Amino acid sequence: MGERSRATTIADVAAHAGVSQASVSRVLNGKQTVDPAIVQRVQASIATLGYSPSVAARSLVHGRNDTIAMVVPDLENPLFQGILKGLSLAAASDGYRVLVADTAERVDDEEATAIEARHRCDAIVLCAPRMPEQRLRRLVEQVAPVVVVNRPLPDADVPIIGVDYVRGIRDLVEHLLGLGHRHLAYVSGPATSASNAERLRGVEEAEQVHPDLRIDVVPGGSRLEDGYALAEAVLGARDDGATAVIAFNDLVALGLMTRLRQLGVDVPGDLSIAGFDDVPMAGFATPSLTSMSVPRGEIGAQVWARLRTLIAGGPIEHSVLYRPRLEARESTGPVG
After folding, report:
1. Could you tell me which residue ranges the HTH lacI-type domain spans (predicted)?
2. Are residues 178 and 258 in the same domain?
3. Do 112 and 101 reside in the same domain of the chain?
């Protein structure tokens, strides 16, 4: 077999152009101080030799590799998928790629995963991190530039893009109150989830505003299988008088409805069910699922807008909190 052809290097370009390797690097870096004649010779040699700098070489020359990372707790969640899509499309328009790291809800892995990802990329997105607040504050300083999604971090010197879960829960409660429900159950999310804490705040505020309202909290989770497994606990809440259920998210609601249907429970005739996030399958469920819609793609695009500014050395822009929109569907109805 013949010898494999050797890739052209900066040294080859320098020798062909009759200049130093440092001069070639300065031309590749776009330095304005290089003699125009040298620039022409180097560019001609690059064209003649077919030289193309590797990603690693460009990173050394420019100090970046046009890649960012997004760390998520559960990539199976359509909410995070939608944010990732919006982020990827926006970043691609500026020539950036997005790498994804899924921590699979392992809180102890988040910090190390984020640090390792940052070593490989120009910047990082922390999506709904579960770690304690003090650890998160230290981490955002360590991995900057960084944008945090769906995690309140008061007074932190970092952009936050998120959802107003407190207002969203209160709006959903108002919808159910309008249907005559006065005793609800809230199926909570992961104990380490900051957005679950915000939802619980919404539950508490709703009860304060409506003294005749009762909302029982049923410990839950964030996945389809969690909702499926919680059906008996939810039926226990119904036996105590609850006529409607708000699930932590749509996945939990959909899993719950599947099991309730198997148990012969009519939704919404026997029990109204509502979710959160308005994932794509919510409108195609049977019955279609009432939910609070979150602008996933727009959140992703806004994350990139702020991250791009930080990468360019610009100022930290203001944080954004989106108010969810009610999508009333078949799974909620009047008290039977």
Report:
1. 8-62
2. yes
3. yes
